[in-house]
Amino acid sequence: MALEEGTKAPAFALPDQDGATHRLSSYAGQWVLVYFYPKDNTPGCTKEACAIRDRLPDFRKLGIQVLGVSKDSVASHAKFAARHDLPFTLLSDESHAMIEKYGAWQRKTMAGRTYMGIVRMSYLVDPAGRIARVYPTVKPAEHADEVLADLARLI
User: Fold this and answer.
1) Averaged in consecutive runs of 10 residues, what is the pLDDT profile of the chain (155 residues)?
2) Domain edges within the chain
3) What's the rounded Cα separation, in Å, for the pair 94 and 90?
4) Which fold does the domain 14-154 belong to in CATH?
5) Which residues belong to the active site?
6) d(Cα 11, Cα 8) in Å, to the nearest integer?
């Protein structure tokens, strides 16, 4: 179940693709896009990450930080970032504890098989640490543009 707009974003402390720990509290006073994706180097996840990469100058002009989150390892994230020249933070949540707190760990079905996994969804967190916008479903190629349009209306 997704978090609701206006609620406080859950705290976290997770390593990035270089092993450095990131905390939500470190971004106080800034807009943050927290986007959840199923797996490094898969077609949809690569499309979404590259679309964000391509629009990153626009995100930076608006002062928004981008944090991608999956349960892949730090090493996997490092390879994904290097392979696609991703200049933003990818957080590793191998235990999926943060992913669960944000409601992105859900029941999924593929090829008739039901399992628990990460759904592609995002949150725009405001400078006060509250959820300003929830994106319960995301189209990988369009998500960066959608977030930028929303942020332009919110600031």
Assistant:
1) 93 98 97 97 96 97 96 98 97 97 94 93 97 96 95 87
2) 14-154
3) 12
4) Glutaredoxin (3.40.30)
5) 45
6) 9
